[in-house]
Write a structure and sequence with these properties.
eight-stranded mixed sheet, 18 strands, alpha+beta, 550 residues, Heat Shock Protein 90, 4 domains, five-stranded mixed sheet
């Protein structure tokens, strides 16, 4: 039996796990390794990366994570299980990758279970099966790891249970991580999908997806696709309070004895939720290179932590930030506040977010927010007045809603910042009308004074929908994906829908079919942006009528 001895003690990995690592945090580390492999595999290639699919299965006795990324050969698999043997910072595209030493994966598997296995296969090569009996190694103080080409008989699982990666065809690649003898077999799966959706919202399909590497990553949990949940999940985020920001914070640090200005890019969003009163209702969700490091970081360390302003009094303020320069601890279970860059980001957030404006002791509560007129005035004259000093303008819809009534500051809440900079609180006689919706042509429409483009393409979805969409608000594009590879349906349908989308037939009926799909997507998009159902239906109808106007 071929064995492999990493350059650490036999009990090291069993002790490497973090007892306080949540299930979603551990899964995130394994997912991050899959995405890193996917990023690296496509580095420097002209062709687009294929869709990455990560399938997760959890039950009371077993956890598995399987992907179709680039995979590893025998030597890479051995190196990955050593300590600092495989330094990601020395590899191509390392500046885009999330890991540095591969330590996150080791901490994750050791946190979840006492036994783990990894099977990996590169395209055109054989599959290799690594068995790591963590608990047994520690108890016997001996290396009992083994690696085999194909199925490893030391496995705790049957070969048939591992066939997905073991039986990949020659031109396929992928990796499977299998964890058993779970330390906490009573995991509560409730909410896990939402946590994973929050964690990977920049990679999966949704309103926050960034087209950085290719197609959105598909994450499947126990047979269901993980989706990007809306901001303020379950806390009822309030209209016209979301501020999207993109800032560069500079600080001084001595490098080789010389005082040097260090720029740090910080981007994200901050908004108000209707519900509050407990610290976990607000806080700052922190991302590094697209990976979630902390969800709703709060007041565990008021002086240093990102989100340190959050308390029970002002927990209605929630935000997320993305900063590629953040430094995390080696196990990637938290932000390392011994590093100056991290404390500087925390300092920026404390100054950027007006945390003192929403203290309940000042009368900011649900009763105040239920007074729509006064609350809207407060949003414009107080909340947005703060952000105007930093260069961010209030939404035109809010200015229009407040109109000439925006002079009080909102009941018991003391107004700050007066009338809000260059935009008068009352909107002014010259305030332009906000164009909520206007159809332009078949491919374009205006929403909230912004022009949106409609794109329709063929794509393989999850098998439950004929079509779906995801908006790119940065590019003002509505991307509609139509599935022409549906199973359990007549093949003639797949052929016909392909012709319709590709406009291969000159038929008014085919055009009408496609336009009905576009109309329904426009309606769904408008509803997702806060428009009521009736108004969204009327606006989408106006688009369709405009297409066929005489």
């Amino acid at each position: 039996m071929p064995t492999h001895k990493p350059n650490v003690g036999a009990g090291f990995f069993a002790d490497f796990g973090a007892d306080d690592m949540e299930l979603y945090e551990a899964l995130n580390e394994i997912i991050a390794n899959s995405i890193d492999s996917w990023i690296e595999e496509g580095c420097g290639k002209r062709s687009a990366r294929p869709e990455l699919k990560i399938e997760i299965t959890t039950n009371t006795s077993f956890i598995s994570v399987e992907d179709n990324a680039g995979g590893m050969n025998e030597e890479q698999l051995k190196a990955g299980m050593g300590l600092r043997d495989s330094v990601k910072e020395d590899r191509p595209c390392h500046e885009q990758m999330m890991g540095m030493y591969g330590s996150g994966l080791k901490a994750a598997v050791a946190s979840l279970g006492n036994h783990f296995e990894m099977i990996s296969k590169r395209q055109g090569e054989k599959a290799y099966h690594y068995v790591f009996p963590l608990k047994k190694m520690r108890e016997e103080n001996d290396f009992l790891t083994s690696i085999e080409e194909g199925y490893n008989p030391e496995s705790s699982s049957k070969e048939t249970d591992l066939k997905k990666i073991l039986k990949l065809t020659k031109n396929k690649s992928g990796t499977g991580v299998y964890i058993s003898d779970l330390k906490n077999p009573n995991y509560d799966p409730a909410g896990l999908s939402d946590y994973l959706g929050i964690s990977w919202r920049f990679f999966i399909k949704g309103t926050h997806y960034k087209d950085t590497f290719g197609l959105p990553v598909k994450i499947v949990l126990n047979g269901s696709i993980v989706k990007d949940p809306p901001l303020g999940e379950g806390k009822n985020p309030q209209d016209h309070t979301r501020v999207d920001f993109d800032e560069v914070h500079e600080y001084k640090e001595k490098i080789n004895g010389v005082s040097t200005t260090i720029p740090v890019k910080i981007s994200g969003s901050v908004w108000l939720n209707y519900e509050g009163g407990t610290s976990d209702a607000g806080g700052v969700t922190v991302y590094r290179r697209g990976q979630c490091i902390k969800i709703r970081s709060g007041y565990e360390n008021k002086t240093k932590s990102i989100g340190g302003y959050v308390s029970d009094e002002n927990a209605r303020i929630e935000a997320f930030i993305e900063c590629s320069d953040l430094v995390v601890n080696q196990k990637k279970t938290n932000i390392d506040y011994s590093k100056k860059v991290n404390t500087e980001v925390a300092k920026f957030m404390k100054n950027f977010v007006p945390y003192n404006l929403t203290n309940s002791s000042r009368g900011f509560n649900q009763d105040f927010m239920d007074n729509v007129e006064k609350f809207n005035e407060w949003k414009l004259n107080t909340w947005w007045s703060h952000f105007e000093t930093k260069g961010y303008k209030p939404p035109k819809e809010l200015v229009k809603l407040v109109g000439k009534k925006g002079t009080t500051g909102g009941g018991d809440i003391t107004p700050r910042g007066g009338g809000g900079g260059d935009i008068p609180p009352g909107g002014g006689d010259d305030e332009p009308e906000v164009v909520m919706f206007k159809p332009l042509n078949k491919e374009k429409f205006i929403f909230n004074d912004e022009e949106y483009k409609i794109q329709v393409n063929l794509s393989t979805l999850d098998g439950t929908k004929i079509y779906d969409y995801y908006p790119d608000k940065g590019e003002h594009t509505i991307n509609i994906l139509v599935d022409n590879n549906l199973s359990n349906i007549k093949e003639s349908f797949n052929k016909d829908i392909t012709k319709v989308v590709n406009q291969e037939v000159n038929s008014s009926y085919a055009d009408l079919s496609l336009n009905f799909i576009i109309q329904s997507v426009i309606k769904a998009f408008l509803i997702s942006q806060g428009m009521n159902i009736v108004e969204a239906q009327n606006c989408s109808n106006s688009w369709l009528i405009n297409v066929y106007k005489a």
